[in-house]
Each structure stands twice: as C-alpha cells, then as structure tokens.
Design brief:
single chain; 183 residues; mainly beta; 2 helices; nine-stranded antiparallel beta sheet; 4% helix
Length: 183
C-alpha cells in the first residue's frame, strides 16, 4: 500500500495494489504495518459495512467527540462513491476545509480519515457497499454531525444530494462561534 498525503494533515488516500489473473483479483485491504504512519499506532477496534441503494444518496457527515474520537479507514467494495472528509479540529490550519475522493473497487483506493474530521459520502453507482475500519468503538453518547450542505464548508457534491436520513438532514448548521472540536 502507498500512502498519499492530502492538504489536510493526517488525511490520507491509500493506494492498494490489485493483483489479477485469469481467476480474478486479490488485494490487501488492511495492513497495520503498512498503514502505521497514517494510524499513528492506533489499532483497529471495529469494522462496519454499509450498503446504499440509491444514486445521489448522501450519508454523513459523521464524527465522534473525544474521548471516543476515531480514525476511520473507508473503502468501497462494490459500486462507486464520492467520499468526503471535513477538518473540524480546533486550531488546525485547514479548519473547515474538505477533501473528496472517488472510491471504487476498480481504483482500489481507501480514505484514511483522522480523529476530529467528519466523514460522509455520496453514492455514484446504485447499491454501493462501503467497508469501514474504526480505531474506536461506536459510542452514541459521543456522536456528532455536520450538515452535508453546511455553508461554512461548501462541499461540492458531484450530484444533487438526495435520500438523506432524518438524522443527517436534521444536523444543525454550525454556529457562527463554532471554532472546532477538541481531541
């Protein structure tokens, strides 16, 4: 795996080598040793998978507050999505900046999202499945969210956002005094 740095500190794209022959393909989707720099010696504690049926659907933008803040590794294992991270870290030089990347099985990319960043995605191909690896256990008491259409962030979704959950659609806009989350 090769780590590609983005303009947001700690936010990486991981290129995965896909090996193929007449039988099909093989790829390594996780290696603690190869991803150590991006994980900062954190360990994976939980794995989740989602399937989203409708093209244009947006899930997110989700994060967890400290002390249950988490780093996520997100990989699309079926379909195609536009995956986005937003820097919410107090004092970060890239505070409220976002970065997006297309994920698909064909391009073999994974998005490594550090603690203090919100994560979401938009489905570009029907019935897309994502695999998530988390460095912290899910904690409803520590969950947070940012609106997918937050004007202070200005995410440029490739399609008109659609099919939001009531939870995601009801995240409040950021208060004018919001200056970030602590880690």
């Amino acid at each position: 795996m090769k780590l590609i740095e983005t303009e947001i500190e700690g936010l990486f794209i991981a290129e995965t080598t896909v090996i193929g022959d007449e039988r099909g393909t093989f790829s390594r989707v996780f290696c603690q040793d190869e991803l150590g720099d991006a994980l900062d010696d954190r360990v994976i504690r939980q794995a989740n998978m989602s399937m989203t049926a409708a093209v244009g659907a947006v899930r997110g933008m989700h994060f967890q507050y400290a002390p249950r803040a988490e780093t996520k590794i997100v990989r699309c294992i079926e379909g195609r999505v536009y995956d986005v991270a937003v820097d919410l870290r107090r004092g970060s030089p890239t505070f409220l900046q976002w970065h997006g990347v297309e994920l698909s099985p064909e391009n073999g990319l994974a998005f490594i999202i550090p603690e203090g960043c919100a994560h979401g995605f938009q489905v570009l191909k029907a019935n897309s499945r994502l695999l998530y690896l988390h460095t912290e256990f899910y904690s409803p008491a520590h969950e947070g969210g940012v609106r997918y259409d937050e004007p202070r962030v200005g995410i440029a979704w490739p399609l008109p956002p659609a099919h939001l959950s009531s939870r995601d659609a009801s995240h409040p806009f950021l208060d004018a005094n919001f200056d970030g989350v602590d880690l």
